[in-house]
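Recall the central idea of this unit: under ordinary conditions, the amino acid sequence of a chain determines the structure it adopts. In this exercise we apply that idea directly, starting from the sequence alone.
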Amino acid sequence: MKYVPSIAFEEMSGSAKGVTAAKVKSRKYIRNRGYGGSTRTSYQASVKAVFKRLSQAWQSLTSAQILVWNAAANTAEGRSVLGTKSKISGCNLFMRLNYWVVYCGGQIMTAVPTLTGVEAPADATIALSSSAMTFTLPSIPSDVSNLKLIIQASEPQGNGITRAYSKAAAFADPYTPVTTAIDIKSAYDNKNGAPSAGAPKVFFKYFYVNTTTGEKSGEKMLSAVLSA
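Accordingly, the structure predicted from this sequence is:
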């Protein structure tokens, strides 16, 4: 909870004794101090490790290489969480593309790849029961040699939750696209716990990644409910 302080706290800032004094847009306030969690999942640690590597790699690029990435970024567009398009920098482009290349086991690209786009996956189906959780694509691209399937999922949610796609996160290594059912139960349960009668819903996001260019397809979303 935030409190508007008196004039006695005119220049006060920082945290002490469970409270934090701060100023945002010339407005001063005091709120309860937030300490944050000290635990970090192995996935969070791996993501941070990848970005640390990429940050160091970017700083090691030559001026000429950075200019090429900046030029490529001028013809690329990012998309914000609100769905609106926005311009990105050369560093942003370097990080975005290289993240997925490294995530899928490749080496950091110092040269800008030729971008061709990646088609979004077909509409998948999820079979979810107490003994099974499978993910099935009805069709895949004719050439999947450079494609990996990324499946993300939320933790089990209660019946009252109608939309929790924003909570979906990776729980397994990238998959090779196939049209046969992919067994994801063990990997999912190990990270998120098994769905139950009290929390029977799981929300999924999935997409393709080009492992040589780092390009990501559009995301698809679906949900599944634990069957009786």
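Residues 42-59 form the longest helix (18 residues).
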